Structure formats: C-alpha cells, structure tokens
User: Fold this.
Amino acid sequence: MEERGKQTSEGSEIEEASRAVGDIETLKDALAEEKNKAESYLANWQRAQADFMNLKRRTEQERAELTKFAASTIVAELLAVLDDFDLALGNIPQGAADASWVDGIRLIQRKLLSVLEAQGLAQIKALGKDFDPYFHEAVMFADGEEGKVVEEVQKGYTFRDRLLRPAKVKVGRGKEA
Amino acid sequence: MAKVIGIDLGTTFSCVAVMEGGEPTVIPNQEGGRITPSVVAISKSGERLVGQVAKRQAITNPDNTIFSIKRLMGRRFSEPSVQRDIKLLPYKIVEAANGDAHVAMGGRNYSPPEISAMILQKLKTDAEAYLGEKITEAVITVPAYFNDSQRQATKDAGKIAGLEVLRIVNEPTAASLAYGLDKKQDEIVAVYDLGGGTFDISVLELGEGTFQVKSTNGDTHLGGDDFDQHIIDWLCDEFRRDQGIDLRQDRMALQRLKEAAEKAKCELSTVMQTEVNLPFITADASGPKHLNITLTRAKLEQLVGDLVENTIGPCQQAIQDAGVAAAQIDEVILVGGQTRMPLVQEKVKQLFGREPHKGVNPDEVVGVGAAIQAGVLKGEVKDVLLLDVTPLTLSIETLGGVATALIPRNTTIPTSKSQIFSTAADNQPSVEIHVLQGERPMAADNRTLGRFMLDGLLPAPRGLPQIEVTFDIDANGILSVKAQDKGTGREQRITITASSGLSKDDVTRMQREGEMHAAEDARRREEAEARNTADTLVYTAEKTLREQGDKVPADLRQQVEGKIAAVRSALQSGDVSNIKRSTQELSDTLQRVGAAVYQAAGQPPPGGAQPPPHKEDEGTVEGDFREV
Assistant:
C-alpha cells in the first residue's frame, strides 16, 4: 500500500512537473511573441521619429526657401512689363530718339528695373555667349557663329541667383551671311 | 526600409510622388517643378539633357531632342501609328534588327525603353535629393490600353534606370486610388483624362478591392495644345481684320501669341474675361502695331466647343463597350490639366449625369495614385498607425464663464497639452476645473465632460499661484485632465472615457451650431472680456488708493473713487461700450495717481504701485480661474 501511495504521489508529481514544463513552454512562446512585438513597436517608433525629424528638417528648409523666394512670383509677373518697356524703347519712332519725352520713358524703365534689382533680380548676360540651355531658350537659328547667342529676343533673368526666366535667344547656325 | 516612389510617366510630362506618414506627397524636381517634361536630348557637346533643360534647346537641336517617346514604347516600326508619327516627329525613327521602332540620337540608336529610362533616371535622382535617401523601387503607370509588349517596355525602362518596378499600374486605376475609390464596393468608375496632347476615356469596374478595365477609348491627338491653337487662330484672324497684318507669318509674334493664348485660356477658368495685351507685336511701314483683344469665357467656349464635343463620341463608345448604361456609372474622375476648364467639367457632368471628382490636382492625380499603390505594396499602409483626430475643441472654464481652449478640434491624437492658470481672488483656497467639449466661446454653451476641485492652495494674492492644467488624450480617445499646484505640488486628476462625450451626430450638430452662432458668440466673448478688464481695474484702483494712502492728493482720490463708481454702475447696466469707456476713464485717472506719487517721491516708483498689464486684467469671482 505504501508502494502504491508512493507511486500515485510520484505519478502526480510527474503530472505536475510536465504541466510546469508545458507552462514554461507557453510562457516562453508568449515571451518570444511579446519580444517580437516590442521590437517592432520600437522600430516603428524610431521610424516615425525619424520621419518626423526629416519632415521637420525639410519643412524648415522649405520655409527658408519660401521666405527667400516669396517675392519671385510677383517679380516673374512683372517681367512682362519689363519686356514691354524693352519693346517700346526698341521701337522709337523716326527722329524721336532724342526727344526728352523718350528720355522720360527710359527713366521709368530704369526705375522699374532698379526696384526689382533691389529685390534680387538680375539680368542674364546672353548676347555673344555660348548657348547654354540652363539659362537660355533657343527660339530659332540665325546667321552667325555656330553655337553662340547671336540675338536676344527676350531678356532672361535670375532672382536671388536662381533662374527666374531663361533668355529667349537666336542661336548661330554657323553660316556667315 | 527604403521608400517606394510612384511615377506617372506621361507623354509630355511626368510626375513623381511618395507616401510619407500615410499621405501622398508630390516630389518637386531639382528645378522646383512638380512635373517634369518628358524630353531627352544630347547636346552638341555630348551632354545628356533631361526635362525642361532639354526642351529649351529643342529648336536648335531637333534631330537629337526626343519627346513623346511614349508614343513609340513597345511598338514595332511597321505599325501604322508609328508610320504616322514619323511624319509628325522631327527626330529620326528607325527600324531595329528585331523590328521594333527605335530612335536615333547623338549619333547612335536607342530603344524607347532606353530613352524613357533617361527620364526615369532624372526623376529618381531628383527624388533621392529631395528625400535624402536612396530609391531602388518604384511603381510606374501606363495607359489602360497598353499591351503586354508596351508594359514590358516600361518595366525594362525602369530596370535600365536602376529601379525595380514593383508593379505596372493602369493610369485610370491610379487616378481612382488617388480619390480613395478602392475603399468602395462594386462600383463602375469612368476616368476622363484630357491632357496636353491626348484624350483617354476608361471605364473600370471595382470589385473586391481590385480594378478591372472594362473598356477604353480616346483620341491620341486631342489635347490642351489644340485648345491653344484655336485661340491663336482666332487672335490672328481678329488682328488681320483690324490691322491688315497676318501674324502667322511672323515667327516671333507667333511665339508671344502662343504663350499669351495659353495664359488667357488658364485665366478664363476662373474669371469671365481677360485681356490679351501684347504691345509692339509687329510693325509695318506706318509704325509699330499692338495687339489688345478682350477674350471672354463665352467666346472661348465658342472657339473650343467643337474640341470638347469631340470627346463625347469616344466616351459614349467606351460606355457601350463596357456593357453598361451611363446611369450605371457610379463615379467619374477628371485627370489632366485641360479638365480644369469649366466647359469641360460641364460636358462631363452632362455626359455622365453626375458631378465628377476633381479635388486632387489633375496634373498630379495619376502620380499620387501611383504613390498610394507603392505604399500599399510596401506594406506601409499596414504599418502606419491609423490616427484619429479629436473632433471638437476641449477647454476649461475660466473667469467670466469663458471657455479657454487647450486642445483645438482636429488635433491628431494621442496628444498632450499643458497651460498654466492662476487664481482670480486673493487667498483663493481652491480652483475648480470644469472640462468642456465644443466650439462655442462661452462655457455654458458647451458640453460638460467633467468637473473636479483642486484644493489646499496656500493663501496668496490673486494671480500668484501657478496651477498647471494638463489635458492628455491617448490613442483610444480617453482624456485625462490633471491640475497641479506647482507651489505645493498637490494635484488632482480625472479620466473621461470617449463614450462620455458626444456621438457623431452630436459632433456635426455642434460644429454647425458653432458656425451659426459665430457672430453672437464673438459679441458675448467681447462682453465677458470687457467685464473682466473692468473688474480687475477696479480691484487694482482700490488697492492703489489703499496702499498709497496720503501720497494721493485728496481731490485726485475723489476723482478716482468717482470713476470706480462709474465703472461699477456700467457693469450693472451691462452695456459693453459703456463698460469699456468707463474702464478707459478710470485707467486714465489712475495713471495720474501714479504720476502724482512719483512726483512726490521724486524717484522711480516702488513695486506694487504699478498698474497691472492690460492682458491679465480680470475681476474677482470666487473659485474661478484666470489665465496667466
């Protein structure tokens, strides 16, 4: 009887032991799962943080750019007026070139230009230079030295060192007239 | 984890976008443009140019400037469309050994995928510069009618450019994604795409989260450029009638006309008429000539009406081919810049019998959709936490029954916000935190979420204690409010669960009420502020008289007391302008007290006899808060 009792108690000990081992396995699995979750949360958090820092950096860059170039939209619109002045003064009627009234118009053009220059506008020097598509837009060929700007059809401008509008130019085709 | 970009590789323009924080963002190119011309060139010096730069030298280098390469992608040389394009395109199209259509540029032949790869390369580089990280994967869109070889050619182009193309997506499908239509069930979607050079209409069926193309149609040579041309023709005709000169003979005049025509067309989408003003457009023996013509929207619609009509036939055909009736189409989407024109939108509405979707920039909508698809493929949409916003403003009640906001509505949660408040009366022993939800400026008009007291405040003059109130909402929308006396360290808090707030209907109703009562509320808030200012000034005036005692000349003291009485009676009457006026008079009179005291002392004033800063003037009400 003692034997059997011992066996029963041993049996139940073994049962308990295997239950405990089972529990440990379950806990191990649960722990592994939680660890995975924790890692992924940390990674996502880091990524979100990084995205945020990048966005912040980029927003500040954009804001600085915006401030610097905020005026460029309206200056770009005013270029049409500068163009018209160029056209007007390029078409002075016969014999009127010395008229003081024409001088007045010239002065107005100068004034408009200097107001805009004070903001950061600068004219692109195109005439005589090598054609450069980063600053010039070719509108047609013309007689003249190949690859050189032989005529400026419309002035080009930069604003605070950034291209505002390329100069419209005629490019030499290489044949002498 | 690197980002995947979405690319709209268009015939005339391309656009790149990427998902950031769950939202699609269009990536500007290095020149600052949100779209990039699909133009490639090799300059005389052998330099490869892509984009706007390539466009600028096109006229001087027509043989080596390749544009609209998309028209040749995946096509064989002998195809009729290629043969037709050979007549229209200024660069050389040749037959490759395998029968494909190739182009000649800079002395050698290129396959269309190689040319497209150059465009993709620039888009990739610019995206990397903007994002600050390397990009190796992309989603690229193609027209729905592209066949296998055309799709493969596009994939090859990506590969050559160093991009692994995770998927080729149909352009109308991408547009649908941009409008979130994939969230709907079993719908028929029509995509009306009128761009610069081509018109495409597609009918898609959405089922089980995927889009199936039911039919496509269109016109490969109908687009915004044709609209411009009609305007230019009209301007030339008008000018010839008025001035007897045909501007079509003048290359430079035509240039200016083209730009002006496009500008006028765009302006007329928002205004009813515009002036085409071109001084010195040309000259003849009698002198310079100017063009100054007014173009009304009505006239414009007359000029281009036939072009818009030409889109109707293909639409009707596409609807028929899809096997549906126009009435069965559930959604209509607009793509392409030309769809900004009111006439086009009207026509689309008439055709399909419903208002088309147009909220997303029509030049960018396909690129945006490609980015969304890229995000889904990358699992970003799965990984992104869907965050809520708090729909109504959360505030506490402060002096005068005013609701002082701590967390404004539509703030993304989880979030936390703190603000320091103080007492309204001397020796105030406790403060009541009354938590409110709603848009109205007066506390009584908002919903109470909860109340609690923080007591044990040490005796102190009003305005001295620092009570920090913190609102904290967690990701589940549970609000906890904490009040802490920074001096004693004592704190109290309550937690308010989302359910104790408002339902969706309540939220909308309260938002609408807030708008309706805006004017009235502003008035009441003004009144409360005037009262607070008056109360504080009266308190300060009495305190000053008390403290300065004999230093205040008797007649001045009488005046001040008179003004104090005036303010008190104005407060009784409740007339806001009266309150403000009498407050101002008291303030002016009080300043003379200060001046008198300084003069008597002959030196800078001691502390305590200074009038309080205007902002914090508030009255004495038991147990209330004032803002610091």
